[in-house]
Design brief:
With about 100 residues, the protein is mainly β. It has strands at about 5, 20-25, 30-35, 35-40, 45-50, 55, 70-75, 80-85, 85-90, 95. The termini are close together.
Length: about 100
């Protein structure tokens, strides 16, 4: 799952432990969610962290929603749910990995 390099301009806030934003592991780094974006620190600046491909999460029988027990992260026009090292989002009757 590739993450394109999209620097987030004018990001003065420094993410880290206790910064107040939802933090979760994403591959080899930590993402921080706020303002409908998912950010990661990258070589002295902050990048938008998004995948470029449509990746379906197969055999995902759990239904996410209020009270499901997973961290809900606002991401653009939808909500991702964090668990098992992934962010999942509902998409046309299935779940996608983000």
């Amino acid at each position: 799952m590739a993450s394109p390099h999209h620097p987030h301009d004018s990001h003065e806030h420094v993410h880290g432990e206790n910064c107040g934003h939802a933090a979760f592991r994403h591959g080899d780094h930590t993402d921080y969610a706020h303002d409908g974006h998912v950010h990661r620190s990258h070589e002295g600046h902050v990048d938008e962290c998004d995948t470029t491909a449509h990746v379906t999460h197969g055999e995902h029988s759990h239904q996410h929603g209020d009270g499901c027990g997973h961290v809900a992260v606002r991401h653009g026009d939808h909500t991702d749910y964090v668990h098992d090292g992934h962010r999942h989002a509902a998409h046309e009757g299935h779940w996608d990995d983000h």
